[in-house]
UniProtKB/TrEMBL annotation:
The keyword Ion transport applies. F-type ATPases have 2 components, CF(1) - the catalytic core - and CF(0) - the membrane proton channel. CF(1) has five subunits: alpha(3), beta(3), gamma(1), delta(1), epsilon(1). CF(0) has three main subunits: a, b and c. Belongs to the ATPase gamma chain family. Produces ATP from ADP in the presence of a proton gradient across the membrane. The gamma chain is believed to be important in regulating ATPase activity and the flow of protons through the CF(0) complex. This is ATP synthase gamma chain. The keyword Electron transport does not apply. GO terms for molecular function: ATP binding; proton-transporting ATP synthase activity, rotational mechanism. One of its GO terms (biological process) is proton motive force-driven plasma membrane ATP synthesis. It comes from Cysteiniphilum litorale. It is a peripheral membrane protein.
Length: 292
């Protein structure tokens, strides 16, 4: 009897867990829809900002900004976007694997690495690593604006301005669809020339791109390029939020389904134990009757 009681207790415990995972799945689905709307609002701004920068790169500039000039890489900076909470499957660890590959690659070339971490999971993971320098940390929650990450990003941009770092990259997750989230790496600084076909050209325009800058090329580009970097990081952050909710929804759905499988297995064990107990009692009754 004690065995069947233990199994029944386990069934009730797993059912309670299943209710929690089911509720978390529904909450994640609701948050994912909001995060996707926010991501889709941010994507066009970041896309057109990138197009403008590509056109500027291809233009005959009266002033060559330092952000367009390649340097000998002696120290690199990495902006890493993670989640603040867990229970989202392998979303963070898959991204961290890509980051670790890049860190190992640079360290083998005797290049030092500075990190800007956005999200508590990245902070707790990378603070345990040796030979990497964490220079800034930021958190970004639902409802926050770009100003929440501006301070941490500006530290890295200032380091590039002061020639402390020679390269700045962004690591984040790209939202492909509800099931697939892909770790991505993007170089922010120095700004690379666009690949062939990366910028959609207007066929009615011939020759090369050029601009008239007011009040001056330096002042305009100083503001434009910083805004461009912030927009790319912000887009990566809000896209990572959508990835987080999608991954959590899928993880909680899998947990709910697995709980159902465990419950079915425990019910089978319970029925077998109950049948064995009934069979034993019948055998005892029959034996007693035969003895009389």
């Amino acid at each position: 009897m004690s065995g069947s009681r233990e199994i029944r207790t386990k069934i009730n415990s797993v059912k309670n867990t299943q209710k929690i995972t089911r509720a978390m799945e529904l909450v994640a689905a609701s948050k994912m829809r909001k995060a996707r709307d926010r991501m889709e609002e941010a994507r066009p701004y970041a896309h057109y900002a990138l197009d403008i920068i590509h056109h500027v790169v291809r233009a005959s500039m009266e002033y060559t900004h330092p952000y367009f000039q390649a340097r000998e890489v002696k120290r690199v900076g990495m902006v890493i976007v993670s989640t603040d909470r867990g229970l989202c499957g392998g979303l963070n660890i898959n991204l961290f694997k890509e980051v670790l590959k890049s860190i190992k690659h640079y360290q083998e070339q005797k290049v030092e690495v500075d990190l800007c971490l956005i999200g508590s999971k990245a902070e707790s993971f990378f603070k345990r690593l040796r030979k990497v320098n964490i220079v800034s940390v930021a958190n970004f929650h639902d409802g926050d604006t770009v100003s929440s990450i501006t301070g941490a990003v500006s530290v890295m941009v200032k380091a590039f301005d002061e020639n402390t770092i020679d390269n700045l990259m962004l690591f984040s997750n790209k939202f492909v669809n509800t099931i697939k989230q892909q770790p991505t790496k993007e170089q922010l600084l120095p700004i690379l020339k666009p690949k062939e076909g990366a910028v959609k050209e207007d066929k009615s325009i011939t020759g090369h791109w050029d601009y008239l800058y007011e009040p001056g090329a330096k002042r305009v580009l100083d503001v434009l390029l910083v805004r461009y970097i912030e927009s790319q990081v912000y887009c990566g952050v809000v896209e990572n939020l959508a990835c987080e909710q999608a991954a959590r929804m899928l993880a909680m759905k899998n947990a709910t389904d697995n709980a159902g499988d465990i419950i079915n297995s425990l019910k089978l064990q319970y029925n077998k134990a109950r049948q064995a107990m009934i069979t034993q009692e019948l055998a005892e009754i029959v034996s007693g009757a035969a003895a009389v």
